[in-house]
Amino acid sequence: MTTASAKHAAGSRRLSPSERWTLGRTLRCVILLGFAVYCLIPLLWLLLAPTKTDAQLVGDHPLSFGSLGQVATAWHHLIAFDSGVIYQWLVNSVFYSAGSLVITLATSVLAGYALATTRVRGRRLILVLTLIAMIVPPTALVLPLFLEINAVHLTNTALSVILPGSFYPFGVYLAFIYFSTSLPRELMESARLDGATEIRLFWSIALPLAKPLVGLIAFFGFVANWNNYFLPYVMLSEQEMFNLPVGLGAVISGTPALNPAIGGSQLPITRPEVALAGVIVVLPIAVIFLLCQRYLVRGILAGSVKS
User: Is the CA virtual torsion 44, 45, 50, 56 positive or negative?
Assistant: First the structure.
């Protein structure tokens, strides 16, 4: 064999299965690490920004650490904004999110169970409309919702945020998929033969088995309502009624340091204070996710295998 043919044979040697597996695993790890860095760096910057002054935030390294004393200073500046209205925004956010969540769970789980276990007339049409409602951008529904809420004179009230936020077609379809695939049919039929009513079937059999599903819908529903900005911004006109995202927008737009066009002299609200407000918005969701991560994974996998 000549030298050229030997080099050609060596270059065209196929990788062994173990080498391909190692290469594939390495490639997956690199891709996942890239996504992790892409997602974590902005979050890390947000956590570090309140530890610095506005000048340090502009001049120092983006991921440098300032001091914990600066965090306390930023917090005092933030709560001094309009006599501590941020406390009211925090209470409003909890109230709006919790109120919408209760209605969402009651309607989504019941609707999904009914669609999965009964053959009602128009069932296919309801499912198609549910899918269409899922893909419609929420911003496209704000104007029709505002006109409806305004027609019944509920604008600038808590109900103007809670009621539209309770409309959650994703939860309905998720419950339908779960009850269609994971509910033991033999157990349901046995209970019916024993004389159990549909209400008793749902309350004693279906609902206890659907705890991962309820947790999943509750998490996503709460996150959607907690982060809701455009709907409360349109529905609410008084600053005391704002939730945290809308209130944070009011802080930015009402501070000369961040919006020089308004002029005037106000409290020292600068970029570190706004970053601290952003941490306050994000922190509850992050804590809930870390505490409920195991249950969320169970909920996601709940309807993946047909029983």
Answer: positive
Rounded distance between C-alpha atoms, residue 62 and residue 49, angstroms: 8
* pLDDT tens-digit readout, 235-260: 998 888 999 999 888 887 766 666 66
Give dist(CA 184, CA 78) in Å, integer.
53
Cβ atoms within 10 Å of 188's Cβ, excluding its own: 17
**Residue type, position 258, single letter:** L
Quote the tokens at residue 27. Answer: 């490639």
Structural contact between residues 47 and 279, judged by C-beta atoms closer than 8 angstroms: yes
Say which residue the tokens 């019916």 belong to.
192
Give the whole-angstrom CA distance, residue 275 versus residue 237: 24
Q: How buried is residue 252: exposed, middle or buried, by Cβ count under 10 Å (0-12/13-18/19+)?
A: middle
The residues, ordered by sequence, that sit 6+ positions from 276 with a Cβ below 8 Å of its Cβ are 49, 50, 71, 74, 75, 78
pLDDT averaged over the chain? Answer: 82
Contact 248, 278 (CB under 8 A): yes
**CA angle, 209 then 213 then 214, to 5°:** 95
Phi and psi, residue 102, nearest 5°: -60, -45
Helix residue ranges, H only, the chain: 3-11, 17-48, 54-59, 68-79, 85-117, 123-135, 138-151, 159-165, 169-182, 185-193, 198-201, 207-209, 211-226, 230-235, 244-253, 271-301
Please tell me the distance from the alpha carbon of residue 166 to that of residue 99, in angstroms, as a whole number: 8
φ/ψ (deg, to 5) at 258: -110, -15
- Spell out the residues 6+ positions from residue 17 whose beta carbon is closer than 8 angstroms to its own: none
> pTM value?
0.80
Give the pair of three-digit tokens for residue 104.
Answer: 């969402």
d(CA 72, CA 70): 5
